[in-house]
Amino acid sequence: MSTAKMHKRYLPLKLKSIETEGFSYFPRQEILIHDVITMLNGENGAGKTTLLNMFRVLFGAKKFDNGHTLKTFFERDHIHEIYILGKFSNTIDQNCGRRPFQEIGKWNDDVTIVCRLINDKQISREYIIFDGVFDLEKNLNEKINWLDVGQYLHQMSEIGMPRSLSNAFSLSQGKTEKILELSEEQLAQYILQICGEQERIEQFNKIKIDLKEQKEQFHKLCLQKQQEELTLDNLLKKITRFKEIKQHEETKNILSFNKPLSILKTLNGEINIINSSLKQLDESIKTLDLNLLEKQKQYDVTLIEKDNIQAQLNKITTEINDLQTEITPIHINLNEISTQISNIEEFIIKYENIEEVDLQLLQTKKNKYTIQHRNQITKVTNVLNEIELIKSDISKIEKNKNVIYPLAVQKLTELLESEEIQYLLLAEYVEMQDHEWRNAIEALLGNERFTIIVDPKQIVSVMKIAQQIEYPFWISPYSSCVLNADKQSILTKMTVLDERISGYLNKYSKYKMAATIEEAWEWSSKGDSCILNKPYPYLVTKRGGKSIKANRLYCGKKAYEAQLIEYYSQLNKLETNIIDLKAEEEILSNKLKIIDAQINDQENRLLLPEKQTIFFELLTNKTKLKQKLIEYTKELSQKKSNQHMLIINSQNIFAEIAKLEEQLNQSKHSLKAKVSQQNDLSTKKEIKKRNFQQIYQQLSKEQQHKFRDEEYCNSLSEYEFYKTEIEKINSLIQQLYSLGDPLDPEIENLVVLEEKYKAHSVLLQNNLNEIENTENQLEKLQQKHAEAREEFMTMVQEAFKRVKLSLETMAKEGNIQATINFFPYGDEKWRADYKIGFHGKKPISYRSNSKLSGGQKVVASLLLTLATIKADGILSFMILDEPFAHLDQQNMELVGSFLKNTNSQYIIAMPYSENLKVAYPFVDMSIQLRPKEPNEEVAPPITYGVINDEYIQQKSHFKPQS
């Protein structure tokens, strides 16, 4: 329907008030609603969203905010029925001369819509549209025809309240501008959910579901058909396999009959062969016994001869060992004496020509060198330690890009930082302008560089901390002043980085810079003090002068660079010095070695007489030992010659014995082998005879008769033939059993399988008949789906067309350029191309909303939602839950102006915030909510704010509450 026709037929609906009995924790109270914009405010938990949910229930929404359902509104145990009364104006419109509710037969100036919720097994919701003001105490006793939700919404649509309003109430949750974050597909679905004909959508979806279920049923039947066909095929294969198995088992029975007969035939032949072999073995064993007896006699004679030679050999070996025992100590003594003679002779030659020197004098000289050497080692160690310390400090400075302060300074600053006390370390806020004067200035400042300067309010607490850790430097308060220093003042070489230390440095303003001692002394006579920086820092005062030295460099942000230069300079000096110290230590070490050698020579020289006496004694002993050794050696040679002859004889005897032993062993082995072979054959013969008897006794009478038939036995094949053939048949039978579905001979047989085959043939035919019926039903349902789809698509296109027209008309009325186009894609899906422009600018896609302000985003979202609702009727009423609480004043005014231009009635919930004041200019009336106290059954009464209180006073039966 066109917009012009809608406006001629329908009149705007105005909600005058809302009243509830039993809803959540709200008290029984009639709440006035303004004709334009009513604002709900209150702290979190006060019930703003719950009150909006009451409006949603009244207008027939299906969903509610904050996860609420109809059940959750029954929050008081004794409440089983909830009533919501919405009072609407039904006065005659001056332009049209009609009443808004006239179309459904309501003629009083007021119309009350009553919603009743009943908490039974299921929550039921009922409505009445009452002609007049409804009184709960009076009118409930009358006969009432309650309407269900569908009937109620149908009657309300007759007077212009579109179903889309109820749909929108169910969808509009959360921040309004969230709509602009939807994709094009989601936005089209959102619009269709509001303005679409829900019954037709649900009917079409139901047909789709029925069609899907019918297709699934058809597919299931086809699968059953395939299963039955497969079952029949498997049964046929089983029947065929059973027949093949039976044929193989008959052949197997024939082979099994002849198999034991073949074994008996083979055993009989093997027993005859064993008897012949046993006879030959008896003759061989007798011959071997005679040969073994002769060899044993020869072996015994040779053993006696071997024992005689062995006794002689043992005797002479003992005599040789005794002689060697005597000779060995002689050799050892001779070697020791020869070594001693050689060492003493060398000692005498070395020391007999050495000049005599006073030994006491040499010892005194050694003691002197020892003390000097130890002192020098200490010096080297100290310098090396100092070098390592400097290298460690250099490494720390280069890594941290910062100077290393004394440990006391580090400790105090860490404590102050942990206590979050602000401080200034003097050294960090005095920057050096001239590097040539750095050493002189830092020497002048001395320990003053480590002064900690703090706020006067904290001076006492900081001094207490310094006293506890025995901080050896000053703690001073902030002190600012103007430094009046002339161009000769040492302060001109410094930059003060924080004026709070200027007062502390002011005492150095009278320290002058001088080039010579003469100039410095002249300045001091005038009352000033002077500093010289060359060649070394020097201080001149009235008292005279003294050299001063800076113990490391600390001042300035880049003092670490100067400290590095100083450290590297010290390191170079120490590394040069260590070379000299090590060289001097080496000289002293060599002197000690020389004096030790001289002392050793003099001590050995004194031993010469004693060494000479020992030398001659050793020579005499050596001569005696050599003579004795010659005698023993001659006797040992004779003994060894005799021993050699006996060993040769012994070796010959042993060879003969070994030969005889080998012959004996061979004979015994041969005899043992023959006897073992005889025993094995006898055992084998007995086993075969027992096997023969066992097998024969197991034969059937028919088999025993056949075995006695010589001609039949000769025709039998070998046992392996029967064994192999039976195994082949067993394998074939096993394969037939395992091929395809398993066969169970205990349960299944050929008769059973053939009966099953007939039964499943009947089932397959029944299944084919059912498939044919289902195909016919599916064809009809597809036709119905096609017709419903055509109606559904027509409804969607008409709905989208109305939304587009409504949007463009409503935007034009608000001086906004906006349009929307819908494009189908996929299976019953659409995309929405929504474009909007403000202040005469060309419309841009909502997907580019980053170019819109916060207020423009809200307006764009509201415009689309309201236009969608209006496309299906008229836009009379809308609720908004915190839609723009984050907007600033300018954007809030933009949104407020837009809402007022729509000529509709709005309920807006907003939390307490600064934005609340910004909203006052466009809000017509405010309602204040307060949360329920823990000890109260219901929440406090709802009150009205100061906004437009004249409007409230005009309604005689409403009184503002404080």
What does this protein look like?
This protein has 962 residues and is α+β, with helices and mostly antiparallel strands. It is 59% helix and 12% strand. The chain is built from 23 helices and 22 strands. A five-stranded antiparallel beta sheet has the order 2-1-4-5-6, covered by helices on one side. A hairpin with a 3-residue loop joins strand 16 (817-825) and strand 17 (829-837). It starts with a helix and ends in an 8-residue tail after the last helix. Residues 1-8 and 956-962 have low confidence and may be disordered.
Strand content: 5-15%
Distance between the amino and carboxyl termini: 49 Å
- The share of residues in helices is 55-70%
Low-confidence regions: 1-8, 956-962
Instruction: Please compute the radius of gyration using only Cα atoms.
Output: 63 Å
> In oligomeric terms, what are we looking at?
single chain
* Spatial strand arrangement across the major sheet: 2-1-4-5-6
Query: How does the major sheet shape up?
Result: 5 strands, antiparallel
Shape: flat
Count, helices: 23
Structural class: alpha+beta
The beta-strand count equals: 22
Mean residue pLDDT: 83
Characteristic terms for this protein:
five-stranded antiparallel β-sheet, 22 strands, five-stranded mixed β-sheet, 962 residues, disordered C terminus
Topology:
Elements: H1 3-9, E1 15-21, E2 29-32, E3 37-42, H2 48-58, E4 81-89, E5 110-119, E6 123-131, H3 136-139, H4 149-158, H5 163-171, H6 184-195, H7 198-351, H8 359-400, H9 407-418, E7 423-425, E8 430-432, H10 438-445, E9 452-454, H11 459-468, E10 475-477, E11 494-496, H12 502-505, E12 511-513, H13 517-525, E13 529-532, E14 538-541, E15 544-547, H14 559-605, H15 608-698, H16 701-708, H17 710-714, H18 719-738, H19 750-813, E16 817-825, E17 829-837, E18 844-845, H20 854-870, E19 877-881, H21 889-901, E20 905-911, H22 915-919, E21 925-928, E22 943-944, H23 949-954
Parallel strand pairs: 3-20, 3-21, 9-10, 12-13, 19-20
Antiparallel strand pairs: 1-2, 1-4, 4-5, 5-6, 7-9, 8-11, 13-14, 14-15, 16-17, 17-18, 21-22
